[in-house]
Amino acid sequence: MKKILSLCAAITLALTLSAQSFQQINESMMKFGRFMYYLSTYYVDTVNVDNLTEDAIVKVLSELDPHSSYTSAKDAKATNEALQGNFDGIGIEFNIMDDTLLVVSPIAGGPSQKLGVLAGDRILEVDGENIAGVGLSNTDVQKKLRGPKGTVVNVRVLRRGEAELLDFSITRDKIPLYSIDAKFWAAPGIAYIRLGRFAATSHIEFVDALKELGKKPEGIILDLRSNAGGLLDTSTLIVDEFLPKDELMVYTEGRSLPRIDAVATETFSKFEKGKLIILVDENSASASEILAGAIQDWDRGLIVGRRTFGKGLVQNQIELPDGSLVRVTVARYHTPTGRTIQRPYDNGKIESYYRDFYARYANGEVYSMDSMKAFPDSLKYFTLKNKRTVYGGGGITPDVFVPIDTSSYTQYHAQLVRKGILSQFTLNYVDKNRSTLTKTYKTFKNFSKNFSVSDALFDELLAFAEEKKLPKKEDEIAKAKHDICIQLKGMIAQDIFTASAYYEVVYPAIDNGYQKAVEIMKNWKEYEHLLK
Which residues contact 84 (CB under 8 A, 6 or more apart)? Predict the structure, then answer.
């Protein structure tokens, strides 16, 4: 009952309702509260009031729009960690192999690395408790190894080449969650940066990535494919790096909220001039669309890929007394030209909303630009400098379309990845050969140039897949062999170097979106007319 009263009071204060509205809410609150009291007191069986309250909140939100949501107290902490960009723990990337916790890589600068924990170490005990061969899950690992900064966790480690188990007392610390997945030179003078999400640290990471590349690039390819969004403020900070002072980046407006403009400043201006490509696809959403929309509306760079998801609703997050979270839509995003990013929805009906999204595959839109449904003239807008035609009404339509490439796609390759077989094979291979690999390939450049997946190694992978109940399909294997070998090489590179190494191996070889972006950068004058 107290939970319900607190929730209603918080909503009442936050929205500063009129006296009449307040009275209506108060009456509804009393009605629902009396009902819950009667139910919990007199119902024939015992009822869980907390669960019923959560169910009621979820039901109400489901009738509003697809992006108003409820997060239980249990899940709220993980949600906040992802947006804050850090958590407290021992600082390892791990995998569970043969029911044993395997350290894939200690996080640079983290407490585990400082104490000498190495990639390939197997953690057998945590605080005296055996964790090997007991059906350990990822959630179990997080519960045991994460904890408040400053607390100590004792682990016992099995290391190849060591006769005795090794003991480590690791003091937990803040561990960064990076949002830049990759950064490297795609071509002379052309920087490639892949941003996985918009977290609190993403802008700093972006600026640092440019510094770490060593010199100011002539052009930047910013990859936002499959970036589902995150923090609005972070998105505008990165947009600010590309636009001159006083240019509108995005604005929000709602029924009870006045229009709020986000305008570029002179504080952040690392790349106001120079060639710019934003890579997007159907899974680029929210903050990704804000960034892409601003760049397109000001004719600042080319948007390359496929139409974005179409999420342009602003949510305010309210913390409830038990630590759970409610995200309520309070406004809509508009690009600088006034376009709405949000695609239509029918009163929050999630099934029809996502059915519309997946229809892009059924109607062929992701394979051919010609299959995209025509936009009515009412959704036509003009860019702010060169008066190019762009459209609102759902997502950002690219300037250069890149279809999904299915030329070498096979179910065999898909299952190899989805069942975790390729990942597990890579872990086994690197674990057995780490010493030889690191001695032979001291730098990524050396590895990239000289390592290739031999026929013998490929046959080992196929045999391993058969052991894991994935039967051979010779025609599909022949069709996908090149892509599988490239992906395997990329995963090996990731394990012995950095996560960025995976993309630097795989994308130039088999990713048509990346390849198109690089081609445009190299032949900029041939495509520059698209901005004019």
Answer: 199, 200
Residue listed under structure tokens 């445009």: 520
As a whole number of angstroms, the distance between CA 94 and CA 97 comes to: 9
Catalytic member of 121, 297, 299, 511: 297
Nearest residue to 210 via CA among 237, 239, 230, 185: 185
Sketch out the chain's domains with CATH numbers. 2-80 (no CATH), 86-176 (2.30.42.10), 180-404 (3.90.226.10), 411-497 (no CATH)
CB atoms within 10 A of CB 224: 30
Structure tokens at 81: 């960690």
pTM beyond 0.85: no
**Three-point CA angle 148, 154, 155, nearest 5°:** 120
Decide if 223 is catalytic: no
The angle, 0 to 180 degrees and rounded to 10, between the axes of the packed helices 19-42 and 2-15 is 170
Structure tokens at 299: 């004719």
Instruction: At 366, give phi and psi (nearest 5°).
Output: -80, -10
More confident residue, 76 or 397: 397
Q: Catalytic one among 275, 311, 489, 516?
A: 311
Average confidence score pLDDT of the chain: 88
Greatest extent of the chain over all pairs of C-alpha atoms, in Å: 77
List the beta bridge partners of residue 1. Answer: none
Residues 301, 244 contacting (CB under 8 angstroms): no
Catalytic residue among 105, 202, 284, 286: 286
pLDDT tens digits, residue range 151-175?
999 999 998 778 889 999 899 988 7
Q: Mind listing the pLDDT tens digit for each residue in 320-360?
A: 888 888 888 899 999 999 999 898 877 656 677 777 788 88
Q: What is the DSSP letter of 377?
A: G
The reported pLDDT for the residue numbered 2 is: 45
Q: By C-alpha distance, which of 517, 511, 499, 490 is closest to 182? A: 499
Confidence class of residue 11 from pLDDT cuts 50, 70 and 90? Answer: very low
Which residue is it, tokens 């996908």?
Answer: 480
DSSP 340: B
487-516 burial code (b ≥16 CB/10 A, e <16): bbbbbbbbbbbbbbbbbbbbbbbbbebbbb
78, 366 in Cβ contact below 8 A? no
Dig out the tokens for 317 from the structure.
């997050």
Distance CA 363, CA 338 (A): 28
Give catalytic status of residue 322 as yes or no.
no
| 286 in active site | yes
Pairing of strands 129-130, 100-106: unpaired
Residue range 356-378, pLDDT digits in tens: 788 888 889 999 888 777 777 77
C-alpha Rg value of the chain to the nearest Å? 26
- Count of beta carbons in the 10 Å neighbourhood of residue 465: 21
| More confident site: 347 or 182 | 182
Burial class (CB in 10 A: 0-12, 13-18, 19+), 247: buried
Residue 116 structure tokens: 């000498």
